[in-house]
Amino acid sequence: MKDLRRYLVLKYIQYLVLSSSNAISTFLGLLGSLYTIIILQSAKVSSKSTVVLISSLAKADILVFISIVSDMVIRTFDVSISSTAFTSALLQNLLTANIHISCLLLSCVAFEAYLITFYPTESRHSRTVKNARLTSRIIWILVTAECALLQNDDLLKATSASASTRSPHVLLFHLSTAAALLRSLSYFLGILLRIVNVYFYYKIFFSMSNR
């Protein structure tokens, strides 16, 4: 559990403390996720709701790995791609999906820690492995839908810019509006999650200090 706590600290710094990811934090995050996935296979690690959330958090870095490897292959071997705009947008949206999934899962872990600290008995019925798995699935589904919408918006913009026809402009307008609203919502949600996480750990820290 000490290793899992260190991993959570690393992920909190990477996604909720740093304003943007960099090469060092991304590399350490990938190594931490790989190590976490390995140790979670051990029979010594009990199946708990927090462990389920951490496992899903570690698996989210697969999106980062795919994006980085794909970009390296394209640049190194000068791979010719029929739709450069589509591929570029997809790799960026994979990174965005990873950030959003990770932030939401980290917030779930923080909320569970808050419940364990202040409402251990009352919240026991909700802090189950089944609920943790359901929460993880919902987060993945929502973020996947977000990624699909953003990808379609980027693709339609690229197609509209290169095409001479004016027919898709109505669809482009509605899709761009929805994507813009979604990006704004994601931005403000990210700020809110940072505030909420600080509040949770502030309360937990002072509660443990008083004890």
Briefly, what is this?
By secondary structure, the chain is an all-alpha fold. The protein has helices at 2-17, 23-39, 49-59, 61-76, 84-118, 129-162, 169-210.
Structure in words:
By secondary structure, the chain is mostly helical. It has helices at residues 2-17, 23-39, 49-59, 61-76, 84-118, 129-162, 169-210. It has 7 helices and no strands. 81% of the residues lie in helices and 0% in strands. It is globular, with a radius of gyration of 20 Å. It has one domain (1-209).
* Structural class by helix and strand composition: mainly alpha
Question: How would you sum up the global shape?
Answer: globular
Q: What is the helix content?
A: over 70%
Which residues form runs of ≥5 with pLDDT under 50?
A: none
Tell how many strands the DSSP assignment holds: 0
- Main pleated-sheet profile: none
Radius of gyration: 20 Å
Continuous helix count? 7
- Average pLDDT over all residues: 86
Q: How many separate structural domains?
A: 1
Q: Indicate the proportion of strand residues.
A: under 5%
Termini distance?
22 Å
SSE order, one letter for each helix or strand: HHHHHHH
